[in-house]
UniProtKB/TrEMBL annotation, chain A:
Family stated for the protein in its record: Belongs to the TUBGCP family.
InterPro entries assigned to the protein according to its UniProt record, in alphabetical order: GCP, GCP_C, GCP_C_sf, GCP_N
Pfam families named in the record: GCP_C_terminal (PF04130), GCP_N_terminal (PF17681)
Keywords: Cytoplasm, Cytoskeleton, Microtubule
Region annotation Disordered: where it falls in the sequence: 219-238
Designated name of the protein: Gamma-tubulin complex component
GO cellular component: gamma-tubulin complex; microtubule; spindle pole
From TrEMBL, chain B:
Native species: Adineta steineri
Subcellular location, record wording: Cytoplasm, Cytoskeleton, Microtubule organizing center
Claim: GTP-binding is one of the keywords in the record: yes
Chain's role: Tubulin is the major constituent of microtubules, protein filaments consisting of alpha- and beta-tubulin heterodimers. Gamma-tubulin is a key component of the gamma-tubulin ring complex (gTuRC) which mediates microtubule nucleation. The gTuRC regulates the minus-end nucleation of alpha-beta tubulin heterodimers that grow into microtubule protafilaments, a critical step in centrosome duplication and spindle formation.
Name the record gives this protein: Tubulin gamma chain
Length: 669, 458
């Protein structure tokens, strides 16, 4: 009789004798004493009832999942596996029932013993599904939770949960296979750790750490439009089935990534997926499809192999991470080689870099010399951006290209456009105070305008290049890269402008040997600017560029090439002190002092004899102060050996040890 | 076609140098003697437009003006294969063809007389370009035409184009006792005054040093005039190579000049080139590295001016140095070389301001095969140049003391009444030498202001 009750209780969690209220967590409601049952047996019954209760909870959960189609593949797979566990439990029960019928002398203890495994297992499973339900995790997120539960000393428990995990892994492997072999994401419910990036402003492929690299860029970049920030916020993937995107790209969804899959591995998978997108998405050029055919690697066979290998992975209980990594790395190497060949040989990556060097890195010096000469006043007087001014600038630039017969060399001119990006709000007062201070003094003399001139708000300091990248190259030049190129360009163009101004001062005064203080000051400034320019353009830029080209040509790995390119940009920024904010600020101050000096002198060109010598001395003093500060900072940095190239710059500046001997100043002014 | 440069070739020497210069430029740019672009040179990324312009039939024409008072040298050019290269309108030979007779005053006077005709040519040539950057004048300062007419043209150019650069390549005469022209010191000092006051940059080519280099470096017992001129044209083409083969920097004349010349009067530059080769001798330099090249450039024996390292208790020093390195160069080599030069103290610099060896990397012409991987040109501002002026002045003083050979000068308007111009010029040169000497001391920075005080008082 008790056995019968117990068997019912085991299935339903309640029986006529043992009433358990569904909503009572402690389910102590039973007849306190049943006369013909021993108190001990009652206790056993309670325990069995508890198993039954757990069974019901689990069963309900499974039924719920199966009924409800929206919970996602992972949970569904989990539920299926759970159901088979429950079925084995039921099977066990029916066997027990059979035994009971055959042998009526069996005691309750027999049941307890037979179900020992489940007394352990069920509470764990219940707590697992409770966690799953309470956290609301989906997809890959549940993998972590399940995996945590496998880490249990009890072998039965851990092996059962491993089975559950394995069921989920089957889904994961299927998704990985899909992206690995076709570059498609089969992800109806948004469960995979790679999703579609629907931003218009797509990053280059493989850009998985945008936040870090953007950080490095922001130090120097002046204006970060708020919408750019907004765009880079990761979007949650849209539930689309079988996505074959056009110009959009994949991105990693960090919160979906299980902790035991290394980020590098996820990156590789992402990279492979994006590579496939790239390879398949040659709708604008039929030749490229032919290129795929020409490729020595037989992708069908390759894919077949990958599929098989991955399938083999799902057969074992434990997911073999090493094997997975090996397979993925293998696939990555193959694809990366293909892409490298595609980019270097077909898309002419080197030529593209040459173009970029020509425009952003001012390789054709004569072009920018001419450009600066022609737009010098226009940009100086520009305070806000209008289409007309931008058009003018671009027209002038085109004319310069034309006049220098550079159309055949800088062929991509139509892709590059000058933009004026004035910050929306006022620049930090701190940054401009130096220049303002200097110029306000001269304002007293001239009374030309009421507002003091501020170099950092004029066109020269806010000129940038907009570079339209064609589709395949987008994979190489990310927005982040472009921003960095612009940051470098920003410095280079200002240097060139200041140099040009100092040179024109030379010309203006060549026949007026009146005030030699002007000459000495001009000379010192020019010395600094020339040497700084040489340092950046040759010691850093040209050197690194040659390195980059060499390693691109010798590399067989597209990802590595990309990495080298990122490194190249980072190196340039580091070595031009953009990331050393105090030094960079100091350099900027020096630049604006030079500009103020040139403009002041120019204004007074005809009445130069009346120019107050104190103004010149003040310029000299401020210039010297800044130089001393910079020299001090750089000296300290060098002591710590932080920048290997720094010595080159300091040697140039201090070649005749004048700075050292004069306590870091350029002379007495 | 911006930053064009017009070359003015004056007198016998100037035209000979100029001729060599254009021959070199044509070879470097793949332009045939007739001015046609060679078929192999159509794809170049060089800039031909600084020194050439294109005629209606696409022929390249040098922006050159050839001037002389006697027809011999220019006639020679007009008989050479290069006769069709030049614009015939730009070739001007004085109609009386008598030359200046090695007389500065005669040259100056002729220049005055022919002013309109000459400046018609120069103006036309200047209007020909979009934005003229400056003039390059080649001449010698010893003879009559180059020195006298050159002086006149310098004054006029400066007056007419005050914002344009005027660079000269001036050949200085041998300063040994036996001069082929007795009035050489007069001519030189009179020209030096104009070079000081009216030129923006003078590259001094000392005939003594040129001969020495040709003898020693090229192993020639008696170097021919053509070989000496070739040396000069090597310097000229080398120093303009960053304009013609543009890279990151130094793409205009002003940027070259302004970094070398800190104050307007200290504008006399010395030059050196290595490795030197001539057509029929094997060069003794086998291997070239950047360090080798930069080191050799600093050796006095390679410098095309003979200067004394010390005189009158003055230790001379470099005001500025620009090395133009041509060829296949790794930027890091440059730095290593600089470090080495600094460690070894191979160059002394001014004590009154920052100074260093500026380096400009330049491409080589793809159409000329050279034996050497790297070659280098140095343009430097060295205070030791004053010792050259000193020697000239020494000879000048000897002559003027006894008013020797002044009759020819008295015959011309400038010296009809008195010889003040001689003293005046001598004074200017003396001031120049003083300034150079002052530049070796720490308080040169105040030299200018002291002088300014003087001029204000006067």
């Amino acid at each position: 009789m008790a056995l019968h009750e117990a068997l019912i209780a085991l299935q339903t969690g309640c029986s006529g004798l043992l009433t358990l209220k569904q909503d009572d967590p402690h389910f102590k409601k039973r007849f306190p004493t049943i006369p013909y049952i021993h108190q001990g047996e009652l206790e056993i019954l309670d325990r069995l009832t508890q198993i039954g209760r757990h069974y019901r909870t689990l069963d309900e959960y499974v039924q719920n999942i199966l009924k409800n189609k929206t919970s996602g593949l992972y949970i569904l797979s989990f539920a299926f596996e759970l159901r088979s566990i429950l079925q084995s439990y039921l099977h066990c029960l029916s066997q027990l029932e059979h035994e009971c019928l055959q042998n009526t002398s069996l005691t309750l203890s027999h049941l307890t013993v037979a179900l020992t495994d489940y007394t352990l297992l069920f509470p764990a499973l219940v707590s697992l599904i409770n966690t799953l339900q309470s956290t609301g995790y989906r997809g890959c997120q549940i993998l972590d939770i399940i995996r945590r539960s496998t880490l249990d000393g009890n072998t039965i428990l851990s092996s059962t949960i491993k089975k559950l995990l394995c069921a989920c892994h089957r889904i994961l492997i299927k998704q990985i296979t899909s992206i690995l072999t076709q570059g498609q994401i089969y992800d109806e419910y948004g469960e995979f750790f790679i999703g579609l990036n629907n931003n218009i402003n797509v990053e280059a492929m493989g850009m998985t750490t945008p936040s870090i690299s953007r950080m490095t860029s922001t130090v120097a970049s002046r204006s970060h439009s708020p919408d750019r920030e907004r765009q880079s916020v990761l979007q949650t993937p849209q539930p689309n089935s079988l996505i074959t995107p056009g110009y959009s790209q994949y991105q990693l969804i960090p919160e979906m990534l299980p902790s035991y899959i290394p980020l590098q591995l996820a990156d590789k998978i992402l990279f492979i997926g994006e590579s496939w997108l790239l390879l398949k998405n040659n709708d604008d050029d039929d030749n490229d499809r032919k290129f795929l055919l020409l490729n020595p690697i037989d992708y069908d066979e390759q894919n077949h192999l990958v599929q098989q290998q991955l399938y083999a992975l799902t057969l074992s209980d434990d997911l073999n991470m090493f094997e997975l990594e090996r397979i993925i790395e293998h696939a990555r190497i193959d694809l990366s080689l293909t892409l490298r060949n595609l980019f270097v040989d077909r898309f002419h990556l080197i030529d593209e870099l040459e173009q970029i060097r020509g425009f952003y890195l001012i390789e054709r010096g004569e072009l920018y010399t001419l450009f600066v000469n022609r737009t010098n006043q226009l940009l100086l007087n520009t305070k806000k951006s209008t289409n007309a001014i931008e058009n003018d600038i671009n027209e002038v630039f085109k004319q310069c290209l034309n006049d220098l017969h550079l159309e055949t060399i800088l062929t991509n001119a139509d892709k590059f456009k000058f933009k004026l990006n004035f910050p929306h709000s006022d620049t930090t007062a701190q940054e401009i105070s130096g220049a303002r201070r200097l110029l306000s003094r001269t304002q007293g003399l001239t009374d030309n305008s009421n507002t003091p001139f501020d170099f950092w708000s004029c066109g020269w300091a806010n000129l940038s290049i907009q570079y339209r990248v064609k589709y395949p190259m987008k994979a190489f030049f990310s927005e982040n890269c472009k921003q960095r190129y612009n940051d470098i360009f920003h410095l280079l163009i200002i240097l060139r402008y200041v140099q040009n101004e100092l040179n024109s001062l030379w010309l203006a005064f060549k026949n007026k040997n009146k005030n030699s203080l002007i000459w000495h000051l001009r000379n010192s400034m020019s010395f600094f600017i020339d040497n700084f320019q040489y340092y950046i353009q040759i010691d850093v830029l040209e050197y690194k560029y040659q390195q980059l080209i060499r390693s691109i040509l010798s590399s067989t790995d597209f990802q590595q090439i990309k990495h080298l390119h990122e490194l190249f940009l980072a190196d340039i920024q580091t070595h031009s002190f953009m990331l050393l904010s105090t030094a960079y600020q100091s350099i900027k101050n020096i630049l604006s002092i030079c500009v103020s000096f040139c403009l002041t002198i120019k204004q007074q060109e005809n009445t130069i004899n009346n120019l107050d010598e104190n103004i010149l001395r003040q310029f000299g003093k401020e210039f010297n102060d800044e130089i001393r500060l910079l020299f001090g900072i750089l000296g300290m940095v060098q002591k710590h050996n932080a920048l290997p190239h720094l010595g080159v710059f300091l040697t140039r500046l201090d070649f005749n040890r004048f700075l050292t001997n004069n306590n870091g100043s350029f002379g007495e002014f | 076609m911006p930053s064009e440069i017009i070359t003015l070739q004056l007198g016998q020497c100037g035209n000979q140098i100029g001729m060599e210069f254009w021959r070199q430029l044509c070879a470097e740019h793949g332009i045939s003697p007739e001015g046609k672009l060679e078929p192999f040179a159509t794809e170049g990324s060089d800039r031909k437009d600084v020194f050439f312009y294109q005629a209606d039939d696409q022929h390249y024409i040098p922006r050159a003006v050839l001037l002389d008072l006697e027809p011999r040298v220019i006639d020679g050019i007009m008989k050479s294969p290069y006769r069709h290269l030049y614009n015939p309108e730009n070739v001007y030979i004085s109609k009386d063809g008598g030359g200046a007779g090695n007389n500065w005053a005669q040259g100056f006077y002729q220049g005055e007389k022919l002013y309109e005709e000459i400046f018609d040519i120069i103006d036309r040539e200047a209007d020909n370009g979009d934005s003229l950057e400056g003039f390059v004048l080649c001449h010698s300062i010893a003879g009559g035409t180059g020195s006298g007419m050159g002086s006149n043209i310098l004054e006029k150019l400066n007056d007419r184009f005050p914002k344009k650069l005027i660079q000269t390549y001036s050949v200085f005469p041998m300063t040994n006792e036996v001069a082929d022209v007795v009035v050489q010191p007069y001519n030189s000092v009179l020209t030096l005054k104009r070079l000081t006051e009216n030129a923006d940059c003078t590259v001094v080519l000392d005939n003594t040093a040129l001969n020495r280099i040709a003898t020693e470096r090229l192993k020639k017992a008696t170097p021919t005039l053509a070989e000496l001129n070739q040396l000069v044209s090597t310097i000229m083409s080398g120093s303009t190579s960053t304009l013609r083969y543009p890279g990151y920097m130094n793409n205009d004349l002003i940027s070259l000049i302004s970094s070398l010349i800190p104050t307007p009067r200290l504008h006399f530059l010395i030059s050196a080139y290595t490795p030197l080769t001539s057509d029929n001798t094997e060069s003794e330099v086998r291997k070239t590295t950047v360090l080798d090249v930069m080191r050799r450039l600093l050796q006095p024996k390679n410098v095309m001016v003979t200067t004394a390292a010390r005189d009158r208790n003055v230790t001379h020093c470099y005001v500025s140095i620009l090395n133009i390195i041509q060829g296949d160069v790794d930027p890091s080599e440059v730095h290593k070389s600089l470090m080495r030069i600094r460690e070894r103290k191979l160059a002394d610099f001014i004590p009154w301001g920052p100074a260093s060896i500026q380096v400009a990397l330049s491409k080589k012409s793809p159409y000329i095969t050279t034996q050497h991987r790297v070659s280098g040109l140095m343009l430097a501002n060295h205070t030791g140049i004053s010792s050259l002026f000193d020697r000239i002045c020494e000879h000048f003083d000897k002559l003027i003391k006894r008013e020797a050979f002044v009759e020819n000068f008295r015959r011309l308007p400038m010296f009809k009444d008195n010889l003040d111009e001689f003293n005046d010029s001598r004074e200017v040169v003396q001031q120049l030498m003083d300034e150079y000497r002052a530049a070796t001391t720490k308080d040169y920075i105040n030299f200018g202001s002291a002088q300014m005080g003087q001029t204000e008082q006067t």
